[in-house]
Amino acid sequence: MCYDPAEHLIQVANDADSPPFISFIPTQGPKAYTVVKQIKFDGLPGDGPNATNGIEQCQWNQRVGLIYLNIPEVNGSGSDTADGNVVVIDPRGMAIVGTFDIPVADCAGPQGMAIGPAPQILLGCNAPSIPSGIRNAAVINEDTGTIRRVLIDEGGADEVWFNPGDGHYFLADGSHRPDEQLAVVDSSGDTQDQTVVIAAVAGAGSAHSVAADPFENEAYVPIPSNAGSTICPTANGCIAVFKAKHDDDRVFVRRDHDHDHD
What we know:
Helix content: under 10%
CATH architecture of the largest domain: 7 Propeller
Mean pLDDT: 91
Number of helices: 0
Strand content: 35-45%
CATH superfamily of the largest domain: YVTN repeat-like/Quinoprotein amine dehydrogenase
CATH topology of the largest domain: Methylamine Dehydrogenase, Chain H
Shape: globular
Number of domains: 2
Structural class: mainly beta
């Protein structure tokens, strides 16, 4: 789900329904906290594209006043082997106003989304690209949907984050192989800065979410107990905290808050 504070409107997806759909819920006015409109994603006239593998992350873009929504696969088999879409929605009319095709060769299964510096939008791509088999990520242009940069082997992400405090994207690549990783990408030039192994692919769990503090410039990655990670000091899960070792080179290391050292 995502929130448009200008229109006081929540957009939420029922991604596992058949067909999946989104609902619009205002937070102010006479219809506050009620569903005022829905859009189905079944490919029929007047509806959204045929979402054959659910609906994923959305973001409100304050620069243009629009909501962007990831559709991992359109008209496919349900395995992220066909192109996905980024759907552009005008919250004022609660209507689809544009659709960007995301080639499966560049970004298979777009799930995570982060609004970066203009005109960037980062897509966290979860599945192996076709035909390379490599899990990539991608940065698109918010106006045209064209691919600005394919981030090779920085994929397998469910959720991604942009930190305006240091200008970096963070990708929680819980489906990356052979190891799960935290990918760090500099938005200046869309350059791949670093990857940090956060878990061996050994358990049923995966580290699939990430958030960053723009004041402390720290990134937070929840790691479940069954992810096969050596970062968590006990058999329990943990939240790993990463911080740049030096402000000039932005090398991210795990930070121990108990002892306050890198």
